[in-house]
TrEMBL record:
One of its GO terms (molecular function) is alcohol-forming very long-chain fatty acyl-CoA reductase activity. CDD domains: MupV_like_SDR_e (cd05263). It comes from the Bacteria. InterPro entries: FAR, FAR_NAD-bd, NAD(P)-bd_dom_sf. Residues 7-254 form the Thioester reductase (TE) domain. This is Linear gramicidin synthase subunit D. Pfam families: NAD_binding_4. GO terms for biological process: long-chain fatty-acyl-CoA metabolic process.
Length: 512
């Protein structure tokens, strides 16, 4: 019995990597996402998945889309959606969070981090979900400077900001809830960009410092020797140890632990074996921009803010993270090493810093407009139309025999795809419901455009390089019945455009 996992936070930096990696791992996923002013839930997720598919050899399955809001009761899900969750889901990965450091008029970060977590627990009770995977933060430890163990939480520590304190309260809420039978907690350190591409969609933390370095360097004219002289003093020794991890590694580790049942029920610090230092970051920036002049003066001396705009700009734009400049504890990773020791965190070295800075500049530090997802075939509308036409075609026949019903799971991958349960009787499509049910007669997976091609006129050429990864279409009865039903129900309306005969005769042993 293969159930769905409900994922929150799938549009965030870590969340979009989790969505990709979980789908690649073959997990069935449902996402709770807010609509935006310009896009529906499906369009927002399509943007993300089509972005990933540019660099993948195959199309991804699509999650089930649930329109909601983490800050509302039951995550803003209506009764029909909650009923679907109750029937199809047995686990929640709660990754949604607000990164707001200081309380704002709208109530953040408390509204999302504490209130949103309370709403997740409310939904768990309503739908009888008892397995929860929670993405916390390593900095629930607050301002501790000693070794922090995975088994520890509240030690009476002080906090740098409301974000840390709200995440601790959220984790306490979950641990105190007696409805949850199995709780797995992931505590990542500071999350940076992609270790390979440099990608990020948020310019906080490490990327804020990289952006400041870029602004200072690019606004300083090179001297006659081609070197930029950015005379800036930093209130650091340069050798402070910093816990920073690439986002792709964090997602890969969480996905591995999620797919490892023996790891469930534990708490994991996602922290690097080799920590970076401010000196490494500055030296990488100097080599990238061909600049010099940054001076580490230690913690004791006073900065001279009257000495030029560069110094003042660097100081004023980094105040939000100043408390992190002076302390960063060592995180115990005993559980992490036990269950994911074969996945070491890649050290953030000069080459990776350069990838971060290169991507930041290409992205104009978050101001670049990325292309929207390409318009795709509306599969849901097509299937519902097939049901309606099938009912019209068979309106004069008796009710279908329950014993002759076939239940087909349909997983259409790629743009516009999705997952459905198709109920068939003879060559009649009785019903189409979102999600693949646990009990099926048969299941089929294929790219959505392969199904859509016979009914599309003037459609874009199908990217055949993706076809090699599609699963062969078998000659099982339910699958043959489905295509026969599509042809039967749509044929009179669409004429010669409907031709699923090649699919009906496709042999399992041959590629699509």
């Amino acid at each position: 019995m293969k159930k769905y996992t409900l994922l929150t936070g799938s549009t965030g930096l870590l969340g979009r990597y989790l969505l990709r990696d979980l789908l690649l791992a073959g997990k069935r996923i449902a996402v709770v996402v807010r609509t935006s002013q310009r896009q529906t839930v499906q369009q927002r997720i399509e943007d993300i998945l089509q972005f990933w598919e540019k660099d993948l050899p195959s199309f991804l399955s699509r999650p089930i889309y649930l329109s909601g809001n983490i800050t509302e009761d039951f995550l803003g899900l209506d009764e029909k959606s909650r009923q679907w969750v109750s029937e199809f889901c047995d686990t929640i990965i709660h990754s949604a969070a607000s990164l707001t450091f200081l309380e704002e008029p709208d109530g953040e970060p408390w509204k999302t981090n504490v209130g949103g977590t309370r709403n997740v627990l409310q939904l768990c009770r309503d739908t009888n979900i008892r397995k929860l995977h929670y993405v916390s933060t390593a900095y629930v430890c607050g301002m501790r400077e000693d070794r922090v163990y995975e088994s520890e939480l509240d030690r009476g520590q002080a906090f740098r900001n409301d974000y840390e304190k709200s995440k601790l309260q959220a984790e306490q809420l979950i641990r105190d809830d007696d409805h949850i039978d199995e709780l797995t907690v992931y505590r990542p350190a500071v999350i940076a960009g992609d270790s390979q591409s440099g990608y990020t969609n948020t310019y906080h933390g490490l990327f804020l410092y990289l952006k400041i370095m870029c602004i200072l360097a690019r606004n300083t004219q090179p001297g006659s020797d081609g070197v930029r002289r950015t005379e800036v003093q930093l209130h650091l020794t340069g050798d402070e140890q910093r816990n920073v991890i690439p986002v792709d590694w964090a997602a890969a580790v969480i996905t591995h632990l999620f797919c490892t049942p023996e790891a469930h029920g534990h708490t994991f610090h996602l922290a690097p074996r080799v920590r970076m230092t401010p000196r490494q970051m500055i030296e990488a920036g100097c080599s990238y921009f061909n600049s010099t002049g940054v001076e580490f003066i230690g913690h004791a001396e006073e900065l001279d803010l009257s000495d030029g705009d560069l110094q003042r700009h660097a100081y004023e734009n980094s105040t939000l993270y100043r408390d992190y400049e002076y302390s960063d504890p060592e995180f115990d990773t005993t559980n992490l090493e036990r269950f994911a020791g074969h996945l070491p965190c890649p050290p953030i070295d000069e080459a990776m810093f350069h990838r971060f800075m290169k991507y930041g500049e290409e992205d104009n530090w978050g101001k670049r407009r990325l292309p929207m997802a390409r318009k795709s075939f509306d599969v849901a509308k097509f299937l519902q139309r097939a049901v309606a036409l099938s009912q019209t075609t068979f309106h004069d026949q008796t009710s279908p025999d329950q014993q002759s019903r076939q239940i087909l799971g349909l997983d259409l991958t790629g743009p516009g795809g999705g997952q459905w349960t198709i109920t068939l009787n003879s060559e009649r499509i009785i019903a189409v419901e979102p999600g693949i049910a646990a009990t099926l007669t048969s299941e089929i997976t294929l790219p959505v455009e392969l199904l859509a091609a016979p009914v599309q006129v003037g459609s874009q050429k199908f990217p055949t390089d993706k076809l090699k990864s599609a699963k062969p279409i078998s000659t099982l009865y339910a699958e043959r019945l489905f295509f026969a039903a599509l042809k039967r129900s749509m044929g009179d309306q669409e004429g010669d455009k409907i031709n699923y005969i090649p699919l009906l005769h496709q042999d399992r042993s041959q590629p699509v």
